[in-house]
Structures are given as C-alpha cells and as structure tokens.
Fold this protein.
Amino acid sequence: MTNESSRDRVDVLVVGAGPGGAVASHTLAERGFSVVCLEQGDWVDAQDMPGTKPEFELLTRGKWSVWPNERKGRADYPLNVDHADADPIMFNGVGGGSVFYGAHWMRLLPSDFRVRTVDGICDDWPIGYTDLAPFYDAVDRFIGVSGLGGDPAYPEHDYPLPPHPIGPGGTQMARGMNALGWHWWPGSNAIPSTAYKSMGQCVRWGLCERGCPVGAKASFDLAYWPHATAAGAKLITGARVARITVDHRGLANGAIWIDVEGTEHRIEANAVVLAGNGIGTPRILLMSDDENPDGLANSSGLVGKNLMLHPVNSVLGTYEEELAAWYGPAGQLIYSMEFADTDISRGFLRGAKWALMPPLGVLHVLDHLQERAFDERWGPQLHELAAYTGRSMIWSGVIDDLPDESNAVLLDHSSTDSSGLPGVKLNYRRDKNADRMIDFMDARMVEAHEAAGATRTLIAPVTESGHLLGTARMGADPRTSVVDAFGRSHDVPNLFIVDGSVMVTGGSVNPTATIAAMSLRTATHLADTAHDQRVPA
C-alpha cells in the first residue's frame, strides 16, 4: 500500500544526491522553486571514514569498499558483471561517487565534443566547449577548484584558487617529462588549497580516494548540499525510487519510492530531474514501465545502451630518491595531455589523460599489481615493496572508450536489492581500439618513469573507473538520442537527466567537472523556461 503522506506536490523532484543532483537542487531552490531530492543512500560522516584509522586499507575491503558487490550495503543494488570486462566503482549516498573520487578536476577538450567531425567516428555532441565554458567557470568558483591557468592544451581559463604543491614526486616527474619534450601541467583538483566555505584546510593526508577524513575535499555532500538545503531544497535519504510516474498526457508527475522500512510512498511533482548516474538512471527508466514496456523515455531504444566506463591503465615506478609519496593531496600532482587527442600513427583513435598520483598504501599497490608482479601475494616481495611506498609514484591513464550499443545496462530480475527491486546486468566489452591504446599508454608511461629516474617499473592490470557514462545520450534527433541538448527527454518534456548518462562520448578526462557544468546548464535552462516545462514560475 502506498503511503499518501508525501503527496503534496512540489515544483521539482530530483532523484539522486550526487554531483548532478546536488547542483540541480541548489540551482533550482535558489531560483525559488520547491525542490525535493530523493537519495537511496545516507549521509557519510567524515570521522567514520577509514582514513582516520591505521588499518584503513583493510577497512576498504568491506563496508568502505568502492565496489558495491563487495560493500553490499543497504543502499546498494546487485551488479551482475558476468558478461562485463569491468566491475565499476559506484557509491550510493549523499555526494554520490564524489565521496570517494580523487577530485581530479578536468574539462573535456574542445575536440571531445566533435569526434565525428574530427575523427569520423561516433557522433558529435549537440553542444560544444564554448556552450559549457561559463558553467565550468561557475562551478569552479562555487566549489573552490585549485589549479593553474594557462595550460596550452586548453582554451584560456583560470581557477579560483592556486594549485597545491606538486611535491618531490611531481618535481622529479616533471623533469623527466621535460627531458622527453612531453606536456605536463600542475594538477587541477576539486580540493581547495585553503579553507573554503564549508570545507576545511587540506592537511595532506593523501587519502582522497578513500574519503577525506577532515572534510577538505569538494565532495558534493560538503561543497553543494549545505548550500542547497539552506536555499530551501529538501533532501530525503534512505529513499529508493521504484519508478517515475506519468499522467494521461505522458508527462512525468512524480515517483513511487520506498523507505528503509519497506513502506512505499508517492510524491507528486511538476517536473522530474534524474541524477542516478550512468547505471542508476537507466535502471530507473527501465523500471518505470507501467505504460511503457521498453521503459520510460525510450522511444529511441537507447536507454541503457552505449555504456562507457573509462578503462584505467597504470604504471608504478619506484625510485631511490625519497619522494614523500605519503603526502597528499592524492588527487593529481601533475597531469599530461600529451596523448589525449588522436594521432593515427599510434594505431588507435582518441587518447588518454595521464595523472601522476602517490600510492594510497602497500595494499593499494598490491591490488593494482596482483599476480602479474608477484608469485605470491604475501611474503618477502611485499615487504620489499613496502620499503618503497614513500619512493614510488603511479601514472594513471583515463582511456577514452568509444560508445557501442552492445555495451549496455539491463535489468536483472534474478537478483534484487533490499527493497525487492531488480538488480542490474552489465554487458560491457572493451574494443580493440581501447586495447591498443592501453598497450601504447603502458609503454609510454614506462618511458616517462625511466626518464624521471625510476629504478623499476611495474605495469598494472587494467581496472575500471567510477565513470559511468553514455546510457541516455543527448542529441538533436529523437530517433538516435534520449535527451536534447539541455538534458530534456525527447519523449517526456518535463523529465530531465543531469548525470554522465547524457554524454555522447566519454572524452579522455575525469567527467565530474563536465557533469556538474551540464547540470548547472540544464537547471538554469529549466528555471528560465519554467512555463514551457509545465513548472509553475
């Protein structure tokens, strides 16, 4: 039985409290709209995070794992990866994946929006870099991004705060990159280099990817949600959306959601904004099938298809020099765009951004190396590696995997979450282009380490990121896309999507800056055109 107590109609219902949902909720609340956000997870207390404890690496193997199938929390849903070359990182809670992200803050390159025009493959986006530039700038200012303007790889832009020190490791690698004549630049990070708004001073714990224990990283539970709720947005946690509801005109009019006790609720809204990430959003659309057997907003048949996950290659180098690699921030000390664009002489299309990072600890290194580097996971070789923990650095690459309709998010009715809703089955295979790119990047990263003076290099197995992209792509043609250039559904004109699922191509950089900028653009457009979207002004 549905609880009717939540049926007071709101202007905008937002689903998901990660970066996209946080930006949209704040923007719309500040413009005077009544906003309710439903989040299936909960708030995370920085003091509960494992980074404050000596055994932090062991704690990330269970409750604090970045993999939902290993974490198995109440807010998680099963991911069947039997037919996937990936087990993607994902976190369900206030702040979403930004709670555990490394805060590498990168913009897409102008060419990333024009892959069809530049390389003759995939599709161009219906927007370009210049359309997003003012929204990139606005989000940078709001969260206090640290970086250095003037990077020749990008159109001119600057950051509100100065960059963090690149440290001994960054300095040593920069010398090596200079010797090779390869591009590098001080890292741009969503980690304020001084106390900023509700965020504290970075004290360089170096645990950014395991959740900042002192609240000094711009995860969106800290950087946006306090401001969103102050503006009047209401955030309900432990609220799992079962389906989006529609009226007789085919307009979205709210949602059915389930609380932690299993009670079903109904909320009514004049517009709905989905921000569930590139797996969660298509899952909700595919479950919203009362009148739509193929799922809601799916006349194109593309909901859940074209999944991109950004394979990650990495190469560790050990050095005789002391690099103080335990110092943070563990975002990116420096990055390189030397190989981010297409050069057909390399044997593949598109490219990868590199980020230089310190290891998070011995077990983190062991996770990357697995059996490829050691005959035994424990023993003398591990202790030998431990001696180099402060004298090692990792180059990590964001591989631009291309969209393919066979890479897809499907409902898995053979497994259910804690609310009895179906889990997800992923079909995902890397293509030969990505494999050739990985081999090339591995070889170049070894070369970079050696130029910087590494005494040993170790190539890690490929992993997948938490970059969940492409499954509700934007475009001008309703036959070949799910949403338009502002993230509005072609089929349901008051339904919007503000997460990575709308991305046409993935680019070769971390996507959170782009997701946040697109969400700000979409929310601003929704507010500016409220009467046209059936939302009262």
Observations:
- Confidence is low (pLDDT under 50) at residues 371-375.
- The radius of gyration is 22 Å.
